[in-house]
Amino acid sequence: MSSPKFPKMLNYEALKQQFSDEPSTNHTTRSNEDALNFEQERQAKTQGLTGSRLRSYAFAKLTRREYSKADLIEKLCLYAANREEVIALVEELAEENYQSDQRVAEMTVRSQIRQGKGPNRIKMALRSKHLDNTLVTEDLKEIDWYEQAYQLKVKKYGTEVSKDPKIKAKQIRFLQYRGFEMDVIMKAISRKTDDFDG
């Protein structure tokens, strides 16, 4: 048969080598980093870390992102040989300001506000990270929630104040879901554009 129906079988090994060993430094560095992180975690899991190895692993975690004290303890306990050692280490890291619940709380608030979340959703986010609301009480007081809610309403529904009960109900549900209080919501959805002057 001189003209076969199917082309020659592909040499997958050659193709894999050709495309995976490209000298793209960014890709290579990234995969090397991922491989190291994976290897680090694998070793940590199998060995039950203690002492300087546990400390190094904690620092490696904290250089990648901020953790609340409770989250860091839980994360390290997955790999440590001894829970009491983890708790003592995390307390020490907090005293030396390598770990800070205050920083994590402030970052959470900023991030949530950027996403258009109200105070109730922010408090939920703080609880999910095992953080106390009192860490950011002052920050939360300084925010103009009415303005935040109004800007969200305008972005989604425009500046017109609707008389239609169905549209009003939709706007209320939207802002409630975002975590705003009812009094703020009612003010935001009934604010007219000329209220800017007053």
From TrEMBL:
<feature type="region of interest" description="Disordered">
    <location>
        <begin position="18"/>
        <end position="49"/>
    </location>
</feature>
<feature type="compositionally biased region" description="Polar residues">
    <location>
        <begin position="18"/>
        <end position="29"/>
    </location>
</feature>
<dbReference type="GO" id="GO:0006282">
    <property type="term" value="P:regulation of DNA repair"/>
</dbReference>
<feature type="domain" description="RecX second three-helical">
    <location>
        <begin position="100"/>
        <end position="138"/>
    </location>
</feature>
<comment type="function">
    <text>Modulates RecA activity.</text>
</comment>
<dbReference type="InterPro" id="IPR003783">
    <property type="entry name" value="Regulatory_RecX"/>
</dbReference>
<comment type="similarity">
    <text>Belongs to the RecX family.</text>
</comment>
<dbReference type="InterPro" id="IPR053924">
    <property type="entry name" value="RecX_HTH_2nd"/>
</dbReference>
<dbReference type="InterPro" id="IPR053925">
    <property type="entry name" value="RecX_HTH_3rd"/>
</dbReference>
<feature type="domain" description="RecX third three-helical">
    <location>
        <begin position="143"/>
        <end position="189"/>
    </location>
</feature>
<dbReference type="Pfam" id="PF02631">
    <property type="entry name" value="RecX_HTH2"/>
</dbReference>
<keyword id="KW-0963">Cytoplasm</keyword>
<protein>
    <recommendedName>
        <fullName>Regulatory protein RecX</fullName>
    </recommendedName>
</protein>
<dbReference type="GO" id="GO:0005737">
    <property type="term" value="C:cytoplasm"/>
</dbReference>
<dbReference type="Pfam" id="PF21981">
    <property type="entry name" value="RecX_HTH3"/>
</dbReference>
<dbReference type="InterPro" id="IPR036388">
    <property type="entry name" value="WH-like_DNA-bd_sf"/>
</dbReference>
